[in-house]
Structure to design on (271 residues):
């Protein structure tokens, strides 16, 4: 019986093979689709566009801010969108504020962050940065009506406003003991500017393009002539995470610099 069953099974198998050969060896449409899906298991379909969650600040004009129409715009936002278009991915923008954006990246709730973030050695211990996309400088600003504060020496015994995470904060921290002033720290630029405008703080230190843009738009402050060397801004991801996204940002940045789109975006906010 065992031999008979084996012969029968072989005969049936040969019949099926010959039948398939007569049909050109094609599987049914369902089988073809199933085999295709099995062969591509774990791979995104070629038509899919990857979406990354990117965290940013709430207000750091001209790098990120809300325009009169309620759209979120700025150098950072426009560069990010241009790079995303160049590299074929989409952006889910998370407008969180600087500190919350940092936390979101570290917690894995955001894939990356762009928020006028200075590349520092300390931050490199926690984040991986792109190539620099903007070089900044730091400047002191006072109320437009203030005639008493003309130099760092005039800050002695007074309050100076700064925004957390900025080059202005880092510079103020580096000289506060030398010039004897107290730092008042804010999470957003508007709060810092308001503190100086109402006279609670006599001055603030801010990234030059940011404060210059604000004054151009009507902010009642004026700049000290002295500018300090700042740092470079970079796009950031969590340490040892999202290397693919970081590479896409770098590749896209290179491309939009070469095709002129980068300078077009920067000039639209700074000239």
């Amino acid at each position: 019986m065992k031999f008979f069953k084996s012969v029968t099974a072989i005969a049936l198998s040969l019949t099926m093979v010959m039948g398939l050969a007569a049909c050109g060896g094609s599987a049914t449409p369902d089988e073809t689709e199933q085999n295709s899906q099995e062969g591509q298991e774990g791979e995104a379909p070629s038509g899919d566009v990857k979406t990354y969650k990117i965290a940013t600040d709430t207000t750091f004009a001209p790098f990120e801010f809300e325009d009169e129409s309620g759209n979120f715009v700025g150098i950072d936002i426009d560069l990010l969108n241009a790079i995303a278009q160049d590299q074929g991915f989409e952006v889910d923008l998370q407008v969180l504020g600087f500190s919350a954006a940092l936390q979101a990246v570290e917690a894995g709730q955001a894939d990356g962050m762009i928020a006028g973030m200075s590349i520092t050695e300390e931050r490199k211990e926690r984040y991986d940065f792109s190539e620099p996309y903007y070089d900044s400088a730091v400047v002191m600003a006072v109320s437009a009506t203030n005639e008493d504060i003309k130099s760092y020496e005039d800050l002695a015994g007074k309050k100076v406003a700064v925004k957390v995470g900025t080059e202005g904060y880092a510079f103020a921290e580096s000289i506060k003991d030398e010039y004897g002033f107290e730092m008042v720290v804010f999470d957003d630029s508007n709060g810092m500017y308001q503190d100086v405008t109402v006279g609670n703080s006599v001055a603030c230190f801010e990234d030059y393009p940011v404060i210059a843009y604000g004054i151009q738009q009507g902010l009642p402050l004026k700049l000290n002539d002295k500018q300090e060397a700042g740092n470079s801004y970079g796009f950031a991801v969590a340490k040892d995470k999202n290397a693919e996204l970081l590479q896409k940002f770098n590749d896209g940045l290179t491309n939009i610099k070469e095709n002129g789109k980068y300078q077009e975006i920067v000039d639209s906010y700074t000239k």
About this structure: The chain has two domains: 51-133+234-270, 136-231. Confidence is low (pLDDT under 50) at residues 1-46. The domain at 136-231 is CATH 3.40.190.10 (D-Maltodextrin-Binding Protein; domain 2). The first strand starts at residue 51 and ends at 56.
